[in-house]
């Protein structure tokens, strides 16, 4: 349902079948397209930083794997609770666009801080925390806008298209970072600084795109909508419709190795030259870009649970290859692992949001999605610290083996948690695509 097409009460907007019949029948709305364009530009900036950050911290600044694991965990989700805060504020004041814009702006400003703090680990930690705080604040309002502007039966397709557009930016970002590193290779410090400054400039364009192009269907108001409160959010969290997916997201996040460690593992196993490191994310991104929309549409047809589980099994296969259990090395190992990594994201990124969104009341849609995202982010934050500690103590192969076992256990648990919706599918037209 386009949010601007109704001034009905919150009770009417959360009414279920009657409200769903007023949703647009088109698979993709203008809101999804404009948000996708905003994410595209923003991700060029974000992925420039992501592409160089591991090698910058480990090789450029000489951080240990334990230190990097701590910072990567901070980057992945130490500010996860701000997702809940952002979701609550967006629902309370019906100002999803403004809350999202504040998150984008905060992340943009942090890019200029890296050249200033130098090799200071606390300084880098604060910048990473601020950057992820911005992401935490903006993600739930953005996803809520996508969910609320899309019919339930098209959620997977809409999120898939948004993630695909987002991934175009993620594909361009490492290319820009690589080009800057190559052009300024005679002075590594200057090259890194150039990446950070250009990343900031592009991030500013992303904020402008959000403010100018994305139409906020809700009017910001100081009046709290009926039923929007901390207590209502907590009650929603305890319900199986949100509690079970959140627990599944937490378990899967705890067993997921961060992208940075995947790329560092590949670099060490293949002795890839440092100058080529920023291009590794392009393999993941390219496959993700090609697979996000088809897999999102497939999830709508055959079941989001099946696609989610299959995606994590593909990730487990990538971990198996990184352990050296299969005699594959060099270019073949890089191509295969990055392809599996990209398919994993194509099959999972957005699928949980596509499932949970239509099942949540509209007045609490942002808050509910923020809880789901917080569970996943917290799990991945703990995962990064644990993986870095095991790598430092026992080496990368042992670390990957341990997480491979943990991932298989988490997948089995998640399949059980999410499988309970099968009975509801027979009578619930919204739950049906999840069965």
Automatic annotation (TrEMBL):
Q: Where, by residue number, does the polypeptide cross the bilayer?
A: 48-66, 112-130, 167-185, 191-214, 247-266, 272-295, 307-326, 399-420
**Protein name (database record):** MFS transporter
What taxonomic ancestry is recorded?
Answer: Bacteria, Bacillati, Actinomycetota, Actinomycetes, Kitasatosporales
Q: How does it sit in the membrane?
A: Multi-pass membrane protein
Cellular localization per UniProt: Cell membrane
For this UniProt entry, what is the primary localization, expressed as one broad class?
membrane
Tell me if Hydrolase is a UniProt keyword of this record: no
Q: Which residue ranges are recorded for the region named Disordered?
A: 1-23
Q: Which CDD domains does the record cross-reference, listed alphabetically?
A: MFS_MJ1317_like
């Amino acid at each position: 349902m386009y949010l601007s097409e109704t001034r009905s009460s919150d009770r009417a907007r959360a009414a279920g079948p009657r409200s769903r019949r007023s949703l647009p029948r088109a698979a993709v709305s203008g809101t999804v397209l404009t948000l996708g364009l905003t994410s595209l530009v923003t991700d060029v900036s974000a992925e420039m930083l992501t592409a160089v950050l591991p090698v910058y911290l480990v090789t450029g600044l000489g951080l240990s794997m334990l230190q990097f694991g701590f910072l990567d965990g901070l980057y992945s989700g130490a500010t996860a609770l701000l997702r809940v805060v952002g979701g609550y504020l967006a629902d309370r004041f019906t100002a999803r666009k403004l809350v999202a814009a504040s998150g984008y702006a905060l992340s943009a400003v942090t890019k200029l801080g890296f050249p200033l703090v130098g090799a200071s680990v606390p300084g880098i930690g604060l910048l990473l925390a601020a950057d992820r705080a911005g992401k935490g604040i903006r993600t739930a309002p953005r996803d809520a806008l996508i969910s609320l502007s899309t019919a339930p039966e098209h959620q997977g397709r809409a999120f898939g298209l948004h993630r695909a557009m987002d991934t175009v930016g993620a594909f361009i970002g490492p290319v820009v970072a690589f080009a800057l590193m190559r052009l300024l290779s005679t002075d590594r410090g200057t090259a890194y600084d150039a990446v950070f400054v250009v990343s900031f400039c592009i991030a500013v364009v992303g904020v402008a795109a959000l403010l100018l192009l994305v139409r906020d269907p809700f009017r910001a108001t100081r009046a709290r909508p009926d039923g929007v409160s901390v207590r209502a959010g907590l009650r929603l969290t305890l319900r199986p419709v949100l509690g079970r997916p959140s627990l599944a997201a937490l378990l899967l996040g705890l067993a997921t190795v961060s992208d940075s460690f995947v790329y560092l593992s590949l670099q060490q196993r293949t002795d890839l030259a440092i100058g080529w490191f920023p291009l590794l994310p392009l393999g993941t991104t390219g496959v993700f870009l090609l697979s996000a929309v088809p897999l999102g549409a497939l999830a709508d047809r055959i079941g989001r649970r099946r696609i989610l589980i299959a995606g994590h099994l593909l990730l487990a296969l990538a971990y198996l290859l990184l352990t050296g259990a299969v005699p594959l090395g060099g270019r073949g190992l890089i191509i295969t692992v990055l392809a599996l990594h990209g398919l994993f994201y194509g099959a999972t990124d957005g699928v949980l949001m596509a499932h949970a969104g239509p099942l949540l009341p509209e007045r609490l849609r942002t808050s509910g999605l923020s809880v789901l995202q917080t569970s996943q982010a917290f799990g991945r934050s703990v995962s990064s610290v644990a993986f870095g500690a095991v790598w430092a103590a026992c080496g990368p192969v042992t670390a990957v083996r341990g997480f491979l076992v943990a991932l298989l256990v988490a997948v089995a648990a998640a399949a059980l948690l999410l499988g309970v919706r099968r009975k509801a599918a027979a009578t619930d037209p919204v739950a049906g695509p999840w069965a």
